[in-house]
Specification:
Length: 153
């Protein structure tokens, strides 16, 4: 259990779904548990950009240090997301089809974060709290991008 995947399909153009997907400030405004702590760069999601988000879930405060690794406008967004001692590689892919746009967002635990990561990853149990946190964050992100647009069509 080291990967999380969310998928959705909406009957709208990829450009509209993309705009919603990369609107970090809109996500923070709509999700009252999420705060934008820091934003480096121009505010655009371009390679090298960085942001720090925090989210309170009851007594637990999770901080997400997000680095943009790669962007192909309206097709691909790759992020590195660090949550405490774990790091996740997140990839969002949009695919156009006759009915609209399909989106898949996958987060994989990054084994290269620590020395001897492969052995370390095999012997250390996954922090289920952080797994749940990244799972919930992806769920909210995809839901916000897809559901609001689907309702508007």
């Amino acid at each position: 259990m080291s990967a999380v995947t969310r998928r959705c399909h909406v009957c709208i153009p990829a450009r509209d779904l993309w705009a919603r997907l990369v609107d970090v400030e809109g996500l923070v405004v709509e999700d009252h548990e999420l705060d934008l702590v820091e934003l480096d760069g121009s505010g655009a999601l371009e390679p090298g950009a960085r942001m720090v988000l925090s989210r309170r879930q009851g007594q637990r405060l999770t901080t997400y240090d997000v680095h943009v690794l790669d962007v192909v406008e309206q097709e691909l967004l790759r992020l590195s997301v660090e949550t405490g001692r774990d790091a996740w590689l997140v990839e969002a892919r949009l695919r156009r089809n006759a009915e609209g746009t399909a989106m898949s967002v996958t987060a994989d635990l990054d084994p290269s974060r620590t020395p001897q990561a492969v052995l370390h990853g095999l012997t250390r149990p996954l922090d289920l709290g952080l797994y749940t946190a990244i799972d919930d964050l992806l769920d909210r992100w995809v839901h916000r991008a897809c559901q609001a647009l689907a309702a508007a069509t």
